[in-house]
Amino acid sequence: MADTIRDLVEEELTQPVDPRVAAMAADIAAEYGAASRAVLFYGSCLRESQLDGLMLDFYLIVSDYRAAYGKRWLAGANSLIPPNVFPFQHDGLMAKYAVLSEADFHRLNGPETRNVSVWARFAQPSRLVWSSGRDAADRAVTAVSRAAPTLLAAAGRIEGEAPLDWWRRAFALTYSVELRAERKGRAGSVVDADAQRYQRFSEPAIAAIEPGAMAGGWGRRRIEGKLLSVARLAKASATYAGGAEYIAWKINRHAGTDIQLSEWQKRHPLLTAISLLPQLLKSGAIR
Predict the structure, then answer these.
(1) What whole-number distance in Å separates Cα of residue 177 and Cα of residue 172?
(2) Which of 52, 81, 202, 243 could crosslink 269 through cysteines, CB 3.0-4.6 Å?
């Protein structure tokens, strides 16, 4: 019997990780107590064996925002413009983690949202590095299983197009929606870094495309995506400690720039981001 997309996702999510990654995930979950449901590890660090000096990426899935936060305004911010993002350090490693409720994580991995942010990321490899139990793990697998079919459906298939080219084009479309610091060709390199994985996922992902999932609408997605990126940036100025330094680090790492921030810029991350935006767009550092 052929593997389903859920089979492949579950197999991938349960692959082992560096023990320090698992320990960090458990510490992140502990910060939120009984509200914590699952922690997923994703991003470029997934392919790295040397983690020192890198910024690890996690998603913390919680039961609901009110249960997760002691401060009502943080719950409201997370609900209005998900996710909230926070820095974290553990055992000499640096990370950031995004917080989503189980309901939002399921929704944002599916075709019912034009927001590419979550399903574009979880159509790529990830690991379930902590869960509160079997039910939470099953829900995480179900949500992630929606991502790859959503990505391919949104891109739409071109007649005669090879599966790997479909993946490359789909990721390129998602990269065009957000304010991105990555160099040109990044979308293709995501696929080429693990072509065998994407080839294996192709047929099950195509078979799992939900009825009624619509392709296209990328013009509208781009407008909404850029505006949402700016809104998240504004929110991060209030929720993310060291937000300006992180923004500069991220752009320098992915775009090959050498942005150095003044002390004033570090203290005013939102104004810094806004002031840098025209220069970065003009130079092509972000798109």
Answers:
(1) 9
(2) 243
